[in-house]
Fold:
Amino acid sequence: MDIKLVPTTAFEDQKPGTSGLRKKTKIFMETPNYLENFIQAIFNTINVKGKTLVLGGDGRFYNKEALQIILKMAIANEAQEIKIGQNGLFSTPAVSVEIRKFQADGGIILSASHNPGGIKGDFGIKFNTANGGPAPESVTNAIFEQTKKLTFYKIAQMSDIDLSYEGVQFFGDTKITVINPVSDYADLMEILFDFEAIRSLFQKGFKLRYDALNAVTGPYAKEIFEERLGAFTGTVVHGEPKEDFGGLHPDPNLTYAKELVDIMYAPDAPDMGAASDGDGDRNMVLGSSFFVNPSDSIAILAANYELVKGYKQGLRGVARSMATSRALDTVADKKGFAHYETPTGWKFFGSLLDAGKITLCGEESFGAGSSHIREKDGLWSILYWLNILAKTGKSIEEVVREHWRTYGRHFYTRHDYEGIETERAKGLMDNLKRRLASLPGMQLSDYEITWADDFAYTDPITREMTLDQGIRVFLKDNSRIIYRLSGTGTQGATLRVYIEKYESDVSKQSQDTQKALKDLIKIAGDIAGISAFTGMTAPTVIT
Ligand code: G1P
Ligand code: ZN
Structure:
């Protein structure tokens, strides 16, 4: 094996964000050694010699080239084995499944999740640890330190490896095993959910439309819904993973999954509409003319655990990210589960899951998951919903409305202001931080601020501290406004404003969300001076 040591210069900007290192595709492609340096930094941090890693990507532009580089570097660095999905494909949840199944030392996922792909889009590298989950900050910080002092990387001089068929190939001391990316994942779903019941739901004519948005989940969804569960052929649309996602923006929300939303709001809508993002960890669930808010979704999954094969023994506890509505807490309190509040990002759930403190967890950003893996899981969430529908015989809207009647409704919205100049966005946050102490007592129309803080988190297991996780403003009626800057963007800054208000009065639960939150939305703008700082009079995305 011809191994080359390539001299390189360290980069200053390879600090992993909310989920891995995410940049414009062009930066990875056109900055010499940019990808190689980051991979070598991971390998140095974990001391990759003799280790087994799972590798794959969501199929987006530059995946193929990047995978070959990573394989050649793994060979040069004497990894013991790389398990890679056929044609280099793996969804994020499936990588987590494989790391755990094979007790691998970790995994690398090439994806920028829900960000657009293509030469003008985004690319990213995520590193997961042996528990199958995103590397915790201690590891990402160590990787970052490595990136700042690299002087060379190692790569094998060889031709590209054929990833088109399953099987084992040896290069030097390294074994490259190409595996089916779908079957282990689908098998696990069959253990967790009542496929028999879901199959008979489909037999009775239940119509699901699943939009894979030309991203990685197409093959998973076809195998699970159409093959194993007998849904009619054509249930899965945009089911071929494409390098540019066929021009679609693979973010399953009301703005970007527009075709699905239009179909679900048309008169002859299917019973259920669902979608996942680029790498398959997010989910959106819709009933006919009915949108399920992701914060409600995780609360509803938790409330109905008794109906689901893999969870009916009980939930150990539940967790949500701070910005997610407190609907989940309400369920936990009623059912007597422990509940936890973590910063944004899946990595914070890992230690709670590993310690057996929680079984289910979720985020407002279309993410839900459980102890079955250490990532959020789009198809898992959709199957959980199907399981509930199959067992109750109710429609999605009926399930949600009944939930609100029982637990009250947490009206909730997120307003995103994208593409703000970074300095202006920082200015807005700094200004809020400076004024934190003076906010309590402030009267804004009918609302009074009772408390405001800058959310900090101490992991109850590892005691790791994470500061600066968003500004929380609490109002007298227990409504909440949260401000934070996105950690996944690649251009400028995105301000996220999260607004929540609880309503127990059933007669008021059917209001339109934006109307119900109208006053609070205005107050949120006033408190932070959003238009003054950003120059924007309206958000770019409303969820
Ligand atoms: C966003 C979401 C967050 C999620 C992350 C990765 O991060 O808000 O909940 O975990 O994507 O999917 P943000 O851009 O807000 O930092
Ligand atoms: Zn994702």
The pocket of zinc ion (ligand 2) is lined by residues 92, 113-114, 277-279, 281-282 (CB under 6 Å). The two ends are 53 Å apart (CA to CA). Residues 378-392 form the longest helix (15 residues).
